[in-house]
Write a structure and sequence with these properties.
Elements lengths: L1 H10 L7 H25 L15 H43 L5 H25 L6 H6 L2 H7 L5 H18 L5 H26 L4 H26 L3 H23 L11 H31 L1
Helix pairs in contact: 2-9, 2-10, 3-4, 3-8, 3-9, 3-10, 3-11, 4-7, 4-11, 7-8, 9-10
């Protein structure tokens, strides 16, 4: 029963569908089909029936092009998901290693360490903003000191700047012998992995599908859909219009799906929920800080009693 309900729920989920993105293309092809059918039925122009146009663009060629387009876009989408997961995984490891390994001797040192843990969450938020070509927002301001917020407004790569601040903090802790060389090297490797995640996302963002390929595919789609009424009008008559609409819906829908998931870092319904992932990492870091503070408070109370 649960599967059946979910199945029908997905069928009626128009928010995540590409129907609204292709409504004009489908409408135009149906109007063309209607005009051709009217001329054939009312005007008696039987020469409009041209079944030979079925060989103009072989369906297998168009199908292979659409499959290649969709598969290429999905590979980019799936790689984006993998990078998002790797960012959370690396952020958790880095925050845990910093919190557990760096020695603090005062309340000020502890607050400084907690701030740099929050910089890891700020890195993910900044990476999201950077990939969307947006600037410092309220989420970043809540995680950063005022002077750091001002500095980010004047840099071209916000997440990279945040890794420099974290790296400087780690170098300071090493120089003060709060961590040894092995711990310092391990923490820097995790920091390098965050930079790698950023670079891989930038590669996806800055290397879209070649325009010539996308344009040629659209040309073929238009030619194929406009030729359909000439092939069908003799056999289907008035049914030509809805049948052409269904075929156009299928073909243009597949192309629109590939276009939507090609850049998975935006705000579309089918894009990666980067904002949710950012909140998840931030919550995990806050829980790590809070758990240590609760343990310290319990330890203090037990000694006082």
């Amino acid at each position: 029963m649960s599967y059946d309900k979910n199945w029908f729920k997905l069928v009626l989920n128009f928010r995540s569908s590409v129907i609204w993105d292709i409504k004009y293309q489908v409408a135009v092809t149906m109007i063309i089909a209607l005009i051709i059918t009217l001329i054939y039925e009312k005007g008696g122009y039987t020469k409009l029936s041209q079944p030979t146009l079925a060989g103009l663009i072989p369906g297998i060629v168009l199908g292979l092009l659409l499959v290649f387009r969709t598969n290429t876009a999905y590979e980019r989408f799936w790689e984006g998901w993998q990078i998002g997961g790797m960012t959370i995984f690396t952020g958790r490891n880095l925050s845990r290693q910093i919190w557990m390994n760096i020695i603090v001797k005062s309340f000020e040192d502890k607050e400084k360490k907690a701030y740099h843990l929050r910089l890891i969450a700020a890195f993910f938020v900044a990476m999201t903003q950077h990939l969307r070509r947006e600037g410092v927002d309220d989420r970043l301001k809540c995680l950063l000191a005022p002077e750091h917020s001002l500095q980010l407004k004047n840099v071209s790569n916000m997440p990279l700047k945040i890794t420099q601040w974290i790296g400087a903090y780690l170098a300071q802790q090493y120089s003060q012998q709060h961590i040894d060389s092995i711990q310092f090297a391990a923490l820097n490797r995790l920091l390098d992995q965050l930079v790698e995640c950023l670079s891989r996302c930038e590669r996806i963002l800055n290397a879209p599908m070649p325009k010539a390929y996308s344009i040629h595919l659209r040309h073929l789609l238009i030619l194929y859909c406009f030729a359909l009424p000439f092939q069908m009008v003799k056999d289907l008559h008035w049914w030509t219009v809805p049948v052409v609409g269904v075929v156009a819906f299928v073909l243009f829908g597949i192309e629109a799906i590939g276009l939507e998931i090609e850049n998975p870092f935006g705000y579309d319904a089918n894009d990666i929920p980067l904002d949710s992932l950012c909140r998840k990492l931030h919550n995990d870091i806050e829980e790590l800080i809070a758990a240590d503070e609760d343990a310290s408070a319990a330890f203090h109370n037990s000694h006082v009693s």
